[in-house]
Amino acid sequence: MIGYVLRRLLWALPTLVLVGVAVFVLVRLIPGDPVQVMLGDAASPEQVADMRAAYGLDRPIAVQFWLWAERIVDGDLGRALTNGQPVAALVWERFLTSAGIVLSAVALAVAIAVPAGTFAAWRQGSLADLAVVAGATLLLSIPSFWLGLMLLLVFGLQLAWLPVVGYVTLSEDLWAGLSFLVLPVITLTLTEAGVLTRMARSSAIEVMRLDYVTHARAKGLPEARVLARHVLPNAFGPTWTLVGLVLGNLLGGIAVLETVFTIPGLGRLLVDAIFNRDYPVIQGCLLLTAGIYVVVNLVVDLCYPLFDPRVSAQ
Amino acid sequence: MRRVGASGWIGLALVGAFVAMALVALAWTPADPLALNLRARFRAPGGAFPLGTDEFGRDVLSRVMAGAATSLWIAAASVALALVMGVAVGLVAGFARGLVDRLLMVANDALLAFPGILLALAVMVVVGASPGSLILALGLAYAPSVVRVVRGVVLSLREREFVEASFVVGNGPVYTVLRHLLPNCVAPIAVLATSMLGFVVLSESALSFLGLGVPPPAPTWGNMLSAARPHLLSAPWLGLVPGTCIALTLLGFNLLGDALRDWLDPRMGR
């Protein structure tokens, strides 16, 4: 078990370093001189040279990377070009907003998908199974931002039950804040439930074919107990892995949904930064999202042996 | 080999219909998808405009058809690029093993650490919004999953007798890989590529929706949806039409991908 944890931790390190290299290279690939961008067109050559020296941009590229990485590890991501706010605090605050939405949606989606998928697998080939599979495939095929727009059209504009534009944080006003989160969370829950249900169903089907399930039935256990005690724990693994991937993907993909619902989250911050050519913010968003993705998948893998002891044994 | 179920045929029909629509749009659309007609703004579907007109009086049917052509060709090109890059790297990693494999896989994992659309966003920042950069961005974003699949197949097969036999009769490694290992990757790649086409259509429309994909006035389903946002209440068809197209295309590719997987891998079926 400890060996497994250590191996997995060590494996994540080079990935994190490469993520850093990738972002470093990417930001330097952006056309235009960052110093010129930061100082504007009116800067004198001396100012440019000073700033170059201050940021170490006159040093060899390897040294630059080292200085850059040192600052990142210290948590210093620089300041936003547009408003001078420290990037680290800005990115973290926006991340918390996005993470709240993503986490609650994925938790709800799992709560729907696992029972639905297991039930469909249990009644495999029946009309109920067909309905679950068809429903899940349909949900999987609806773009989240379009579903969001349509829900907004119906519940926001036509029925006027929920607010359409704007955002209030939960700490400012709990109920108003929640009313802004209802539609985005429902939208994400629905679209993600599709993928997860299909995975839960197919892994439950694999497990139900195994001999020990037949044995459990043969010794007279009630079906509910066979499912809950024998099928579910063993079939949950692949779904759990998918949860990790879904979480990471959502953090990157939520920009579209945040645009639809005008939520000031991480994705929206990144897209706005791209439009404003705000390089420190772009860099901060990319680093945080990719870093979180690595960490989430690490945590998912580390939790895996908790319900599937076969993994750590290997 | 199993028979292809009804859902597979539905998928094929949906994909076929949209491909046909795209091909027709290359040669003919009912009206010029770019022609402005300020006298015919926001016409509801019906009459001369079967799917209505948009905020500039442009014919929505023509725009949706032209959008199909753009979206599908970008998707096909992106998937092709992802396949070329992914297969090459996957074959090398799986066949070489050892240090080369380790290094390639660490790099691959780092790329995978950027959720698809985020990587595409990052590439778009560097190269700017245009169809060409979109293809590059989406191809790069989806190549790592191809690498994983190809490497897995090669790793599982390279110890088998037919590979050894190929060496024994004097074939070089390049010939052996291309002649004996690559064909074994075709089935899983076909399944992956089919569902990837759907995801790429989705990513492309998401990027265009954000304004980072194909720039207007050229119509794509994504930028049509984006333009429809302010007019949703008064002209709901502007949001319904392109959205339904994206969803149906995605559904088609998903059903087709499932059917292909069941057909090539009977173990997964019922």
What do these coordinates show?
The complex is a heterodimer of chains A (314) and B (270). With 314 residues, chain A is mainly α. Chain A folds into two domains: 32-76, no CATH class; 90-307, MetI-like fold (Orthogonal Bundle). Helices cover 79% and strands 0% of the residues of chain A. Chain A is built from 13 helices and no strands. Chain A has helices at residues 2-29, 34-39, 45-54, 61-73, 87-122, 127-141, 144-158, 174-208, 211-218, 223-260, 266-276, 279-307, 310-313. Chain A is flat and about 85 Å long. Chain A starts with a helix and ends with a helix. By secondary structure, chain B is mainly α. In chain B, helix 1 packs across helix 2, helix 2 (60-96) runs parallel beside helix 5 (131-157) and helix 7 (173-210) runs parallel beside helix 8. The two termini of chain B are 13 Å apart. The longest helix of chain B is centred in the last third of the chain and has 38 residues, at 173-210. Chain B has one domain (6-268): MetI-like fold (Orthogonal Bundle), CATH 1.10.3720.10. Chain B has helices at 6-27, 60-96, 98-112, 116-127, 131-157, 161-168, 173-210, 221-228, 237-264. Classes of the chains: A mainly alpha (314), B mainly alpha (270). Chains A and B meet through helix 1, helix 6, helix 7, helix 10 and helix 11 of A and helix 3, helix 4, helix 7 and helix 9 of B.
